[in-house]
Specification:
The chain has eleven helices and 13 strands. The chain is an alpha+beta fold. The chain has two domains: about 130 residues, PurM-like, N-terminal domain (60s Ribosomal Protein L30, Chain: A, 2-Layer Sandwich), CATH 3.30.1330; about 170 residues, PurM-like C-terminal domain (Phosphoribosyl-aminoimidazole Synthetase, Chain A, domain 2, Alpha-Beta Complex). A hairpin with a 7-residue loop joins strand 1 and strand 2. The longest helix is centred in the first third of the chain and has 19 residues. The chain is globular. The chain binds adenosine-5'-diphosphate and magnesium ion (MG). Adenosine-5'-diphosphate binds next to helix 1, strand 4 and strand 5.
Length: about 325
């Protein structure tokens, strides 16, 4: 299929418009009308084959995930997402791949009211870059740098299951056979679903606005991302092993050491980790519970630097690794 036809296909599938999209796909650039008095929040995230996903990942899943990881960043800012741009680098112009990819992308985009307003299509090794845009009332963006000693540390969402899903796929032998690995095995299948179909915690982000002192989305592992929050805020953290959410599926499939490693350092969770002042804790937890958002208070912010993890006897626990880093030598 020629580039022009691929673009026509994307245009045809992605033609869901919002009234604030004055000009979408098809011109040299998109024109968006921003609600007066709102702040624009934007982020970009790239997924590269073999780095961020196994090369055999189904196209639909890639479409969903490439948008979901960006909406997770907007959720961590407390923003509501409105628009997205999609830069696709494809090894060939296979229309079936693009069609499936777009269906996954648009399933999430349409559910969340996000319009695809443009992008770029190039030939090369498979990589997907999505830019997302959202709005937030002035000055209300949740930043990483506001945590104060005494604040509680909350996690909204699930930890470690996506890393468990990846381990299931890798243990299943060649990744091209993963449908055989996961089918008819409900626990494995649920974990792989977590890896492939992350749910951006948008509702949690909105509830945390104006109440959390700091927030970050957990994409590279809890210790790594909470570490970024602590560094930005100039504080330290104490975590309690017993308070961390222990997934039943993980505990059934992996030994205790592996489970802790996935929870503390596994990637691709897309949970939110935030800090909440003591005075607001109960109200915030109640509101999250009312929306049926899984929430766990996992520790406290303290003065100092770094993160200490304590076991049930009060002893310091030494994690096996701390998270994923690109360019690690
Ligand atoms: P130009 O050469 O002017 O940059 P392109 O040929 O790259 O224009 O793109 C034509 C139109 O198609 C633009 O509106 C662009 O935003 C849109 N577009 C290209 N690739 C994608 C894509 N992968 N997803 C969504 N829109 C796309
Ligand atoms: Mg272009």
């Amino acid at each position: 299929m020629a580039e022009f036809d691929l673009l026509a296909l994307i245009h045809e599938l992605g033609g869901n418009q919002r009234s604030d999209v004055l000009l979408g796909i098809g011109d040299d650039a998109a024109v968006l009308r921003i609600t007066e008095g709102m702040d624009l929040v934007t982020c970009v995230d790239t997924l590269v084959a073999g780095v961020h996903f196994l090369p055999a990942t189904p196209a639909w899943d890639l479409g969903w995930k490439s948008l979901a990881v960006n909406l997770s960043d907007l959720a961590a800012m407390g923003a509501r997402p409105n628009w997205a741009q999609l830069a696709l680098t494809l090894p060939n112009s296979e229309p079936a791949f693009v069609r499936d990819f777009m269906q996954g992308f648009l399933a999430l985009a349409q559910r969340e009211g996000v319009a695809l307003v443009g992008g770029d299509t190039t030939c090369g090794g498979l990589a997907i870059s999505v830019t997302a845009y959202g709005l937030i009332p002035p000055g209300q963006a949740l930043q990483r740098d506001g945590a104060q000693p005494g604040d509680h540390i909350l996690v909204c969402g699930v930890l470690g299951e996506a890393a468990g899903g990846l381990a299931c796929l890798q243990a299943g032998g060649r990744s091209t056979e993963w449908s055989e690995v996961v089918l008819a095995k409900p626990r494995q299948e649920r974990l792989v679903q977590r890896l492939q179909h992350p749910e951006p915690m948008l509702a949690a982000g909105l509830l945390l606005r104006g109440r959390a002192s700091a927030c970050i989305d957990v994409s590279d592992g809890l210790l790594s991302d909470l570490g970024h929050l602590c560094t930005a805020s100039g504080v330290a953290a104490e975590l309690w092993l017993d308070s961390l959410p222990h997934s039943e599926d993980l505990c059934a499939l992996f030994n205790a050491e592996q489970v802790l490693d996935f929870i503390l350092a596994g990637g691709d969770d897309y949970a939110l980790c935030c800090t909440v002042p003591e005075a607001l804790l109960v109200a915030v937890q109640d509101d999250l519970a009312k929306r049926e958002i899984e929430t766990h208070a996992i520790g406290r912010v303290v003065a100092g630097r770094g993160i200490n993890v304590f076991d049930s006897t009060g002893h310091t626990f030494q994690p096996r690794r701390r998270g994923y880093e690109h360019f690690r030598t």
